[in-house]
Amino acid sequence: MIFACNKIHTREQLKRLQSLTLEQKIQATKVRIGEWYQHWDGKVYVSFSGGKDSTVLLHIARQCYPDIEAVFVDTGLEYPEIRQFVKQHDNVTILRPKMRFDEVIKKYGYPVISKDVSLIVYYAKHSNGKKQNYINDLKGLDPNGNDSDYNQKYEKFEYLLDAPFEVSHKCCLIMKENPLDQYGKSTGKNSMNATMAAESNRREKAWIKTGCNAFDSSKPFSKPLSFWTEQDVLQYLKITGLPYCSVYGDIVADNEGQEEFYQTEKHYHCTGCQRTGCMFCMFGVHLEPEPNRFQRMKITHPKQYDYCINELGLGKVLDYIHAKY
Question: Which residues, including other chains, have CB under 8 Å from residue 255's CB and lie 6 or more apart?
Fold first, then answer.
């Protein structure tokens, strides 16, 4: 049955799940939440970022189990509106990382381009054992030093090896993942998060490896919205009227009034922020149309903009990767 979790996961199965109606996806998500909750005898929580995706997950989870806990990691990098929104919810545990963002970038480096690229650049400069393999990745070569079609997607970022600043993927690990891991160990609880396979190739590959509920993983986790898309989340918020953080603005349809004529479904977007991860994260900013996240921050949050661009040195990094701000 498509609503139940399977032990074998394929790209075709994922596409089939992604093609379900929203009503069917809600039902399938509730099944996965129920399987996770029952497997761990209720010792579970929702990793709640305050963003629109985790807001939907928490709402559905509490329809199933009203007493389920939400856990928020206050990194100090969230939009102030996000932090206020989180505090409006009941039964939320707030965690804090052991290091601040300025300490992380000083010790390890800046998060740029993507998590994969930052990881490869970091280990190309700092790995003891497989340093040449990482360098080959950035040169578009395989481990033997031969041309590799697979690695060509990283080749254009070879210039980061000569950057006048350090590059690292460790920010998410230190500031978000570690506090949640430590909380899980101390409480015996296992997390549910709202990541979706459609967000990146990395997350699609992760789904194919584990599916929605990774019961047997070394770090068990559940992703009950894995087969949703951003449009599903926006449609859910629009239809239910569920409150969400004000930083997103309004949810409006691109083709309002035209869907019947063109026989298409409504396509929604937010009039404010399109994403609300860490304010100072530079992953993907080089691909964003203008105004990108930093250009919008300059207008909406000038105090935070000045701090990150000038005091934290993000301006020099954005200049180097040719991203406007």
Answer: 262, 264, 266, 267
Q: Per the structure block, which two tokens stand in for 212? A: 């929605």
The answer regarding whether domain 20-100+171-248 maps to CATH 3.40.50.620 reads yes
How many angstroms separate the CA atoms of 187 and 201, rounded?
32
49 touches 190 (CB < 8 A)? no
Is the Cβ–Cβ distance between 44 and 61 less than 8 Å?
A: no
| Torsion angle of C-alpha atoms 206, 212, 213, 218, degrees rounded to 10 | 10
- Average pLDDT on 52-80 reads 97
**CA separation (Å) from 217 to 47, 136, 255?**
18, 30, 43
List the end-to-end C-alpha distance of the chain, in Å, as a whole number.
49
Average pLDDT of span 107-115? 96
Helix (H, G, I), strand (E, B) or coil at 225: coil
**Stretch 99-112: mean pLDDT, rounded?**
97
pLDDT above 90 covers a percentage of the chain that reads: 80
- Tell me the one-letter amino acid at 190: N
Domain positions in the chain are 20-100+171-248, 112-162, 279-320
